[in-house]
Amino acid sequence: MTHALPQVHIIGGGLAGSEAAWQLAQAGVQVRLSEMRGGGDMTPAHQTDGLAEMVCSNSFRSDDGDRNAVGLLHREMRALGSLIMREADKAKVPAGSALAVDRDIFSEGVTRALMEHPNVEIVRERIDTLPAEGLTIVATGPLTAMTLAGSIGAATGLESLAFFDAIAPIIHRDSIDMDICWMASRWDKVGPEGDGKDYINCPMNREQYAAFHQGLLDGEKTEFKQWEKDTPYFEGCMPIEVMAARGLDTLRFGPMKPVGLDDPRTGRWPHAVVQLRQDNALGTLWNMVGFQTKLKHGAQIALFRTIPGLEKAEFARLGGLHRNTFIQSPKLLDNELRLKAAPHIRFAGQITGCEGYVESSAVGLLAGLYAAAELAGRKISSPPSTTALGALLGHITGGAEVENYQPMNVNFGLFPPMDDVRKKQRKEAMTSRAGAALAEWIKQAPIRAPA
């Protein structure tokens, strides 16, 4: 299919770009979706040329729309006909109260939906400069090609900010010793797709933990290039060895916390625990939760095989490190995600400084809605700040402190407070308020109802 003059050009076929393309296409807008993977280029972290490929994790995090901000965002996106949420629901795997997916099934579903849509043209090409004209959405994500990043820097008058994201290892299920490990969710919590036994737990006693902690400190790390040395990490995707350097017990209060996990062999909580989460629908691959790392591959294999139950672990993927680029969105973008210096260009996804697959997709959804409305000569107000969509958009486009702007996951701290509600009831009250506000916004805003 070919459109000589696509009405909107989307650069980047990740989660944000795919969602933006879907929203526009469903609104009757012709879209040219440019994705460099599959056209001879690849990023340091991706493994396929599929659209919406998930790299760092297979989890969309909590799906609890009544008590969790990201779960609320899931619910709001579903209400707006999100392709990403539709395909995630189809590809989900057991993960307690979280929404985790088989990443291959998920990417294949998104790719197929966009390939089959009559209003979408997918072109495998690398875009090196920002278009001088025509409605454009830049959704190139954290691994924006350096040539395009340079063009963005020239257009904004600022050098791009960058930090590192680290990806966690994945282990073959049949190489895990289940005589040592056991299946359980923390506090035996049962999620909509699980049974309260959704994680593989590897226990450590005090001596094993101390030796493992020292191994993280001593293990050989990936060397930084000169231009990378002053680049900060994002707190939400911190390499485990960087956390370990903060103190002996830091990991025991983070990804290795043992609370709520009774070891059936002792009836007690271990001193520390390593959790593995199912990574594919078949249950053959399991992700080391919170184990993003910049250890060299040899060091990873040697150290991670000291974890009880993983002595013979076979790795489908080892951890790694990749660059993440984002712009100072609160200074550069208006409340419709347009670049103030060049308003024909919108930005969406992680390059705006949101963090997380769901948040990235949500910003892509909003960018698509805004671009469709602009083409139709309509004006959409911002989602209410009491909704997850509105809170996230407000943070990106003006709510954050510009000089210290860092990537942010959606959280209740971005919402207007409800100090008149008792603390134990506050989350439920905030999600209830958000539901009513979103319903009213959908009713009043001139946006397409979900198909």
Which characteristics define this entry?
451 residues; globular; 17 strands; 12 helices
* Beta-strand content: 15-25%
User: What class do helices, strands and sheet pairing give?
Assistant: alpha+beta
Overall pLDDT, averaged?
89
Low-confidence stretches: none
Most strands sheet: 6 strands, mixed
Major beta sheet, strand line-up: 6-2-1-7-17-16
Percent range of helical residues: 25-40%
Radius of gyration: 22 Å
Tell me the series of helices and strands, N- to C-terminal: EHEEHHEEHEEHEEEEHHEEHEEHEEHHH
What's the total helix number?
Answer: 12
Number of strands: 17
Q: How would you explain this protein's 3D organization?
A:
By secondary structure, this protein is α+β, with helices and mostly antiparallel strands. 30% of the residues lie in helices and 16% in strands. The strands form four sheets. The chain has a six-stranded mixed β-sheet, covered by helices on one side. The longest helix is centred in the C-terminal third of the chain and has 19 residues.
